[in-house]
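retry 2 of 3: previous attempt timed out while embedding NAP. Reduced batch size to 1 and resubmitted. Inputs unchanged:
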Amino acid sequence: MELPRLDGQVVLVTGANSGIGLETAVALAELGARTIITARDPAKGERAVAEIGRRSGSDAVAVVGLDLADLVSVRRCAGEVLRRYDRLDVLVANAGLVLARRTLTAQGFETTFGVNHLGHHRLVELLLPRLRASAPARVVVVSSDAHKLAYRGLAFDDLQTTRRYVGYDAYAKSKLANLLFVRELARRLDGSDVTVNAVHPGLVATNFAGEGDTRIGGAVMALVGRRVARTPAEGARTSVWAAASPELAGRSGLYLADCAEATPSGHATDDDAARRLWDASEGLLAAADPTTPPHGGMAHTRVVIVPDDYDAQRAWYRDVLGLAVAEEFADGSGILLRLAPGALLELLRPEAAPRRGPRIGIEVASAELARAAFPDDVDATPIEAHPWGHRSFTVTDPEGGRLTFFEVLPAAARGR
Ligand SMILES: NC(=O)c1ccc[n+]([C@@H]2O[C@H](COP(=O)([O-])OP(=O)(O)OC[C@H]3O[C@@H](n4cnc5c(N)ncnc54)[C@H](OP(=O)(O)O)[C@@H]3O)[C@@H](O)[C@H]2O)c1
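retry 2 succeeded.
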């Protein structure tokens, strides 16, 4: 497989401390990309960085912590990537698991659905502005032919599998959710030069379903035999192809296997289901997000716009923002985007904002920063004292959407 060099590009592969993800990272690093891997266990992450560096000959490999079973960790990871890297060309959503018993994520989601689908949904969403800014860019989601075992599609009345939990059924549905996510995201990104495709890696001999994760997993592997399974490097090929092949330039919403287009199940091409899953996921994430305030039912994503000289004034802003932990919001309460005011308009694009319209709250260090971001004809009207002590005002953007800005007052002025 002849692929172009990726020198100068930044790629992120989730769950790349082992298996298919690790081999994907090795291959992308060999092609010259600056390679970020995620790992939930820091020690495993460091070992993988050393291995990927040694095998690829690259010294541009780094690890960022990520536990997809905790939205706080997802936000931290996205924040760290945005802070450390000024571009993002490829995001491979590879991490995944299957569990014999029903467990819950930190925010109370059924873990298979929470990790394989919801965590990645949120991570991609948070990194989308950077992917857009680096376009042409690609999102690759590692799904599985196992999605075809979800014979009845998703159970929209029981996405968390509360009724009857069977590990492989929950897994099949989560992999179907991956495909529906890709379908809806591709539709939302149409015309943007950010493409998103799904991959089936084949049956691959990895740690997957091992270590007691599911007895069925072990049984399947024993039955089929590890000998017929692919090596992790073989399993990574389609992911790498999806990330780098010129053949796929501008092509989006596809299901890929064996480095070619494949046919997913009928349920995976159901546009209504894709839209419905998107809305349901947004609802679940908004309700569970630790940044959602108990105010007027408005989900508030803390996107803080800071001026260009932020670094010089960091201490002051930390004070102003009243955060216990400084700029990275290590408490998980938000992400920090260093945007020049002019770039704020980018956030208004429907797919660029984590949440759009009345549902996105943007904190600004001063009202002037927000006003500077908008054309003159945009109406910025102060409205009320915010219960958190922020002065807030709404802005109507040129396309008729509404954003609420919060002018953050010094902690002292808020009586905190
Ligand atoms: N193996 C196959 O036959 C096969 C077939 C079709 C599709 N797939 C898909 O391929 C992908 C990679 O699987 P693999 O076979 O390479 O398995 P693997 O060796 O077990 O790798 C899975 C990766 O995901 C990570 N992960 C698990 N739970 C996580 C969480 N809560 N937060 C963040 N990362 C987490 C794991 O980290 P830890 O090391 O810390 O557990 C590991 O890095 C999965 O999405 C899987 O569904 C695999």
